[in-house]
Write a structure and sequence with these properties.
Length: 484
Amino acid sequence: MNSENFSISEKIVSPSYIRQGSQARRSHEQLIRLLLEQGKCPEEGWSESTIELFLNELAVMDSNNFLGNCGVGEREGRVASSLVARRHYRLIHGIGRSGDIAAIQPKATGSSLLNKLTNSVVLDILKLSGVRSVTSCFVVPMATGMSLTLCFLTLRHKRPKGRYIIWPRIDQKSCFKAMITAGFEPVVVENILEGDELRTDMEAVERKVQELGAENILCIHSTTSCFAPRVPDRLEELATMSAKYDIPHVVNNAYGVQSSKCMHLIQQGARVGRIDAFVQSLDKNFMVPVGGAIIAGFNESFIQEISRMYPGRASASPSLDVLITLLTLGASGYRKLLAEQKEMYTYLAQELKRLAAAHGERLLHTPHNPISLAMSLDGLQAQSGKSVTQLGSMLFTRQVSGARVVALGNKQMVSGHMFCGFMSHSEAYPHPYLNAASAVGITRDDVTLCIKRLDKCLKSLRKESSARSGSPIPLTGQEDHAGE
């Protein structure tokens, strides 16, 4: 409804009522106007009616929704199922063109506008989350691993002699396979043990750089968010080293947007040294379906090079999902989620520490990891090596998802490389342990129920072990109250 249609409507319905309706619509349009003018996440979240109005306005700008459109090409936004069309708000053309994922599509003005606005809003959120000096980003419809691969492939053209990627070890397959898929040779640098924490061995990294020759190294591939007892890499030192030897630096920031500590590390690394790109997952940071990531950096031309490396058009679904989510939350809503994540981290740590003490275990001291926690399982290991892995199965069947149980001595072949002590980020970590993470969206009920079920599982395993050995295992005195 435009002003002309409202004027005509006054001949049908009382003008005072029409003016009231017109004013109501203008309040929606005012929000949309501010978004278009500023390109920033609104401070307060929008209602679903405003979001749907906006998306419908975008959709009618795409050629597949033109009244009387006659399409004779091979890609005309045709959709056989009306259910699928509604699922995508009839934004069918996707984003980008064959040569650039960020390019404008003449046939899809609405989808192109959606893409540009999403990238702008996401950039605003990255700044809000702590990386104030980031200059450019784009949403790519691939998860973190393939997005890292795209970054490595882009660097190939800038460093034709680059064959190796220096990679402080983190036992997560996708980031390792990202390097292999791109055609490079990962140089695994083992972490060093400091207390309970596994930290970046800077001396070993520099030795590898000198041994291989800086010109033969494609980049340093570091990590922020990770499973305890590993902690985020020493990003400032790695960034300084990258600048010193003129080696690109790519950061795997998979679920680090939700952590002010991880984002601060990236900001500081870029300030004191060199960070070329940092990659983060959409689903882990913004609670949307799996399938998208954000590639961001401090040099706009390099980020544009990465976007141009993407072959073909791309799905708009991840962009649509994250834009709807951020418009729903608003900046204030996302800040609230970040604050709740910190609060739940403290609560989870307290509860795990209490439970660990009740069962003769301890919460590993990993203060540099702002998301993941680890509880030792030395007592279970002493009972039986099988008890440790059995605990993981018991938790899963009792609907405790996301908890990781890491036994000693695991070996795993990943793309031709043998990892000893796999899942522990170390060849010889001294403790078996259980991981739990306080990620964005976790609730107090999640933590309480997890602790209660974990307590029951540990008691059950203790009883089984006692029955096999024929001798009772004494309680610590706190055990009876651990799950309350």
